[in-house]
Write a structure and sequence with these properties.
This protein is an alpha+beta fold. The chain has helices spanning 12-17, 47-58, 62-69, 74-82, 196-208, 212-215, 223-229, 237-244, and strands at 21-24, 39-42, 88-92, 98-99, 104-112, 123-129, 137-139, 148-156, 163-175, 178-192. It contains eight helices and ten strands. Residues 96-187 form the Nbr1 FW domain. InterPro entries: Nbr1_FW (IPR032350).
Length: 248
């Protein structure tokens, strides 16, 4: 049984990156690990030993790890620092990233699994920014370690107003039901073109979110027909309000 010993947080990367290096230990003559030599020899392939060491030493530092690295568990921490999961973006093709809400966008890229572990069946790109796109997922084929492939990020434009949006994507795998985000962040600008129908729909949602006392005189059952009749005409809050007023 390895004794619990206190080790400085600054040594964690040394444990997972060292090869044939001496790593400072606890300076204790009673330590079963360094046997009083004040250091241990770590081989890069000693993954099991590293796992035990890091879990033993850093369990008490999880709050700091979670805050600084946005990693929730020791297992995720080990994956992150042993670089088991990683990918290299080889080439991002020139893509057509312009369209109206609910249209399909396909972004082609070539990438390589340059990590040390095969990806799970649940591997996908996930949009992490901006809020309007956040959480959109595009499934990809999992790659074995060392393999490369051309794939695509494919998604439907959400119901949002026209404008310029800079989307940011991370590659993710599910590991023991936990989501691991890894590798570089891909930034893709998207131009959302005007759609009068979607614009009017968003105005309707904005109206519905007003205080109940303001909208209690409105008949929202009329909304589908009004939106259909006005699909070629931009509405504002005031005009839609008047159209939805209940008849006495």
């Amino acid at each position: 049984m390895i004794n619990k010993i206190i080790m400085s947080f600054k040594y964690y990367e040394a444990f997972v990156s060292s090869k044939n290096k001496s790593i400072p230990c606890c300076n204790s003559l009673n330590c079963n690990l360094c046997l009083g030599k004040y250091y241990i020899q770590v081989q890069s392939e000693d993954i099991n030993l590293m796992d035990i060491l890091i879990q033993d030493k850093l369990q008490s530092r999880m709050k700091e790890i979670q805050t600084k690295l946005k990693i929730n568990t020791i297992d995720q921490f080990l994956d992150y620092h042993q670089r088991k999961y990683n990918y290299q973006l080889i080439y991002l093709f020139e893509n057509h990233t312009k369209g109206k809400p609910e249209q399909q966008i396909n972004i082609n890229l070539k990438y390589k699994n340059n990590g040390t572990i095969d990806w799970s069946n649940e591997t996908y790109f996930k949009c992490i920014h901006p809020e309007e796109f956040k959480g959109i997922i595009s499934q990809v084929t999992p790659l074995q370690s060392g393999a490369e492939e051309t794939t695509e990020i494919s998604f439907k434009i959400p119901l949002i107003k026209e404008g310029e949006y800079l989307t940011k994507w991370r590659l993710c795998c599910k590991r023991n039901q936990e989501e691991i985000q890894f590798g570089p962040t891909i930034e893709i600008p998207c131009t959302i073109e005007e759609s009068i129908e979607i614009y009017n729909y968003l105005i309707l949602q904005e109206l519905k979110n007003l205080e109940q006392s303001v909208i209690e005189s409105l008949d929202f059952s009329k909304a589908p027909k009004i939106l259909e009749d006005k699909k070629d005409q931009k509405l504002d809050l005031d005009s839609l309000f008047l159209l939805l007023l209940k008849q006495n």
